[in-house]
Amino acid sequence: MDAYSEDLRKKIVQALTEQRMNKSEAARAFSVSLSSVKRYAKAVNEGRSLSPGKAPGKRPLLDEKARRLLEADVEEHPFAKLSERREYLEKVAGVSVSESTLSRALRKMGFGRKKGRWVRASATSSSERLSGRW
Description:
Layout: H1 6-17, H2 23-30, H3 34-45, H4 64-76, H5 82-92, H6 99-108, E1 111-114, E2 117-120, H7 123-131
Antiparallel strand pairs: 1-2
C-alpha cells in the first residue's frame, strides 16, 4: 500500500484545526485509520513536515562501484570461481557478500556460466538454438 499523499494529510489536519473535527470523526470522514490522524496531528504540533517519508527497505549489498569492479573482473578473468571473486571484492571494494549473492548479481548483470567460465548471455545464442544452427 502506498503512503497517503501530503495533500490528504494537510486536509486531515485542516479539518482538525479549522473545522474543529475530533480525530475519530476525521478518520471516518477521510477513510484513514485513527492512528494515522493522530500521527499527522502530532507531526504538525511538533513542527515536522507532513510529507511521506522514504519507504523502508534493505539497501543493495553491491553498490555501483562494486558492480563495475565485478564486471571488469569477469571480463578480465572469465574462469575465476565465485569464491575468488568474493575475495577480490572484499579486498578491493571492502564489500563482503556470499557466493549466492554474487551469483545472483552476475546473472542480473547478464552473465551466465558456459563450460566453466562466465560469459555475457547474447541474444544470438538463443536464436541460433531456436533456428537449429546449433
